[in-house]
Amino acid sequence: MTKKPTLLILAAGMGSRYGGDKQIDGFGPNKETILEYSVFDAIRSGFGKVVFIVRREILEEAKAMFVPKFGGKIELDFVVQALDSMVPDVYQNPERKKPYGTAHALLCAKDAIHEPFAVINADDFYGEEAFRMLASFLTREVKADLHCMVGYAIKNVLSDHGTVSRGVCEASKEGYLLGMIERTRISRSTNGIFHEDGAEKVEILPENPVSMNCWGFHPAVFDQTEKLWFPFLEENKENLKSEFYIPKVVNSLIQEDMAKVKILEGGKIWFGVTYPEDRDHVMNALKNLHQKGAYPEKLW
Question: In its keyword annotation, does this UniProt entry include Transferase (predicted)?
Fold first, then answer.
């Protein structure tokens, strides 16, 4: 395939732990949002379009912020993830407060993307190499039954200010994903990195790859996801907090032998904002990258 890939940015999260809309908060030296660095890296890596998934409440604000900045540099589209998006009337519940998670967000973009595409979080910084690896895979290797993810060593994706949740991966010797388990309450101590499960503490090796929601997909994934979506809604129609995550879809594709997922080695640098206390670290890290010449004085 030679068509330029698309970047899908998940920016509809509620930002509950952080305490605000971190997707449109400024962290760079010139108040750049974290997602602006992802767009900058995507453009210089060869992506041709950016699609934003946003909540209806921040749609106009997002357009006002981002279209003037890089609307002339890459094709842009905005898609809303709402409680009723892709949800038949029979499954809609007025008491539900939040949409259904990342795989639901992916489905919301089905009509906007018809080419190989990457998926990222708006509030995570992934590094230029991740986008170069994704662009190469999505233009040369991707197939309807072959997707990818960028793997990050767990030692590099923790917060100093609280526990985190990560998709801990199991990989084959050939570098393909065998499956992943969402681990919560992961933290680092002087004795190592541990996931707390009730009274039990389970060690996770520092180099173990984890998913930071940095994926590369063939557009066939939309139909593959939709086949799981409606059974999910039926099974969870009484659960107002149920969420439909991309790892659930990926695990199912692997287990049903419907697709392979290659783990790319582009995950060399990552930082993000999970807690308000992470803000200073992110601002300093971005400032240092500018000073080293990894990014120009002004992105746009």
Answer: yes
